Amino acid sequence: MSAHIELQGQPSRRLPESAVPEGCHSWGGERVRAWAKAQPPVWVPVRTRSIHVLAVAVVGLLCGLWLANLVDVPPGPAALFSLQLVWTLVRPEVVRVSAPVLFFVLAWYGGSRDVATLVATLAVTATWAMAEIRMSARRTQRQWALAAAEGVMASLPDGVGPLRRGRFLVGLGLVPAVLGGVLVFFGSGLDVAADRLEATLAGWFVVGLGVTSVLSGWLGRRRAAALRGAPVPVLRVLMRDGANGDVEVFAADDVDAVRPLFTVAAEEWYGDGDEDDDEGERRLSQEEMDELLDSLENDEGDDEQAGALRDAVLYGAPYEGGEIVIVSAPEDLDDVDEELVVESSAGPVRALSERAVRRRVGAEKARVRRNAAYADRREAAAAVTAEHLGSGAVRRWRAGWLDWAVCTVLVVWAALMVLPEGGLWRYIPGALLGLGGAFLLPGMAAWWITADRDGLWFNGMGRVRHIEWDHVMTVKCEGGELKVDSRRARFGAPWTTHAPRWARLERRFGLIHPYERVAAEITAMWKDPALRPTEVSAERARGRVLWPLGVVLAVLWVAVLVLVP
What we know:
The chain is of the alpha+beta class.
């Protein structure tokens, strides 16, 4: 699948036989290939990113407004049509119920020769068909997994911990459900009919999104609880921790990790006994903490690499959307006393089609090329740092034309989004965009770093932060992010700023990104005390706090919203 998938030939760590349930079969051969082929067609959405769900939600809301205006469908049923598109991506189980309801709504309010009604009917039919195909593929995958287990069942191991699945989604969903209800209540009292329709429909849509989150949490919790209620099918597989943090599962005979079957977000439970250890035994000295941070910093280059291939046992029949528990050998080869890793799914199983695997291969190759270009530019930036350092003078870096251009584009985009609208569609999104801009834009457009004898100084929204040279932990430019962090907790969150970059163009034309120059110069001074400034900067020269700029931007944005016709 990738450069780091050209693996070792055998799992780096195998499970002891005592950890494998009696009679557990290895999942491989024809049965695993049949499972992998039980996929919906490519035009049925299965693995969708959050940005895609957000885009579909926006399109769905616009479609609901269109249906309410052209067919005179009330706001509630129109919001149901909007949610239908979202449910097709994230909750196909709901589509099987909502589609017949929408057909009844369209038949009741629409005309038989109405073009809008016909288009909406075709859309509902398409979503229902996709949901049914996806649910059918799930059933087929589950049947093949059960056949591979050959009736061998086992109860979950003791280390699985209490049931936690779904709590976050349920709590998260209650917030938009309540906010949407408030919007429906106040929107229904507006005087202008158009504003009343739009506000009420948007409120019901937000309520539906909240209910969707609650339902997702409940379904995940119900399926996870079913694993604990009785013995479940078990299968022996290979697995590893993916580069993005998810678990990747392979067939038991895929010792080269060529073709992942599915991915799943999983979490390990740590018992209360781990938290009740003697505080004195767990407290680290400052020297030990620094050594630990150094080791973590040295390992950060491997963040985008997948973990070692390990022997594992799956508890529960895997299928797209299902829940499982994974017991695997520990990844640390040096610790022979380390216990087995028991992880419960924190999200649904997501099967990988052949097309998805090919996309992952292409993405991995692109990442390797991109990182090679970044490394080349990093070396070029390091080569020219000596020209600017060693004089002993205070050094300063600040936002430049690239940062200002990004801020300008964001402001223009926000203005084009809300200014053509009127009523609530201008002021509610405008207020949210303005609030976000007041917090984000000052740091993007007016960041300031000062290096003097005492260390590094960073301006911020509320205060100017300081890192002594001996306390610097991280200085790096990864992609379009410049990041500096301290070993001391009082510094707070790492200082970061972002800007776009195109590594291939930089490499082709011999350009060096401004953030690479900053990172190279700070790193050189951090590593070599002889290159550090010998002077102390004045307090006013360390940059000013940015909250006044945020206030000014907020006032200007409010004036634009109110005064621009």
